[in-house]
Design brief:
The relative contact order is 0.14. α4 (105-132) packs parallel to α5. This protein has helices spanning 17-28, 40-49, 68-82, 105-132, 163-184, 216-227, and strands spanning 8-12, 32-37, 58-62, 87-90, 138-142, 190-196, 237-240. Strands 3-2-1-4-5-6-7 form a seven-stranded parallel sheet, sandwiched between helices. β5, α5 (163-184) and β6 (190-196) form a beta-alpha-beta unit. The chain is α/β, with parallel strands linked by helices.
């Protein structure tokens, strides 16, 4: 991680779960981190938990990834005040438990906007910053086990993921599109997809806590590994599953 010292990392959905764990680990690794979330008071509380000497390394900005104007305002602030973006961790996501065929369309649209279109806009803005400064940056996509397989969980009450796997399959496609386009544009920017199995976060639907689970820190460790690889190594996909997961 030495080459990332004092560089700028942006973490979306940094108020809880995987995003909060990543933000803390990146600050402790010597980076300047911008935590983006709707609930900025949670990131501010997270900053207070860090050693005092690290407080000024965690910046807090309001951002609703599901609203393009909010994304653009947050990234404008980062470029104006911090000079650009070297690492982006696309972590923000949402899920409304229910059945695709019976839910309100507005809920399905919100999941698509946050989990896919918002990720695309954040990635576009980060890449633009990296390319304009000729920085060999890194974009991380927090994917899911459901981005490769439509899981069939034990018990009908757990079959409630509806739009979520659809958007995560989109992230899997986005990974390869970004890799190809970055190569075609002759940049040294890396892109990595991290696919967790069931993880103990607030997004987890009711009932899933009966299954083997990972901790957010387990996923953060995988991200730190991918970021710490030498310049000629690109971790394309990394799947992290809890031992004993039934899928």
């Amino acid at each position: 991680m030495d080459r990332w010292q004092d560089r700028v990392a942006v973490v979306t959905g940094a108020s809880s779960g995987i995003g909060a764990a990543v933000a803390k680990d990146l600050v402790r690794s010597g980076l300047i981190v911008v935590g983006l979330a709707r609930r900025i008071e949670r990131i501010e509380a997270l900053r207070e938990d860090l050693p005092v000497e690290l407080h000024d390394r965690l910046h807090v900005q309001h951002c609703d990834v599901g609203e393009l104007d909010s994304v653009r305002a947050a990234f404008d602030w980062i470029e104006e005040h911090l000079g650009g973006i070297d690492i982006l961790v696309n972590n923000a996501g949402t899920l409304f438990a229910g059945q695709l065929l019976t839910m309100e369309m507005e809920q399905l649209q919100r999941v698509c906007q946050v989990n896919l279109l918002g990720v695309i806009e954040c990635s576009r803005r980060a890449f633009r910053s990296m390319k304009s400064r000729e920085v060999p940056g890194h974009i991380v996509l927090i994917n899911s086990l459901t981005g490769r397989n439509i899981i069939y969980p034990p018990g009908e009450e757990l079959q409630c993921l509806n739009m979520y796997p659809i958007t995560k399959h989109g992230i899997t496609a986005l990974l390869e599109i970004l890799r190809q386009e970055m190569r075609g544009l002759k940049t040294q920017v890396k892109v990595t997809s991290i696919s967790p199995g069931v993880t103990d976060t607030e997004i987890l639907p009711s009932g899933y806590d009966t299954l083997p689970m990972l901790k957010p820190e387990d996923i953060s460790a995988g991200i730190i590994y991918a970021l710490g690889t030498p310049p000629h190594v690109q971790v394309h996909e990394l799947t992290i599953k809890p031992l004993g997961e039934p899928f």
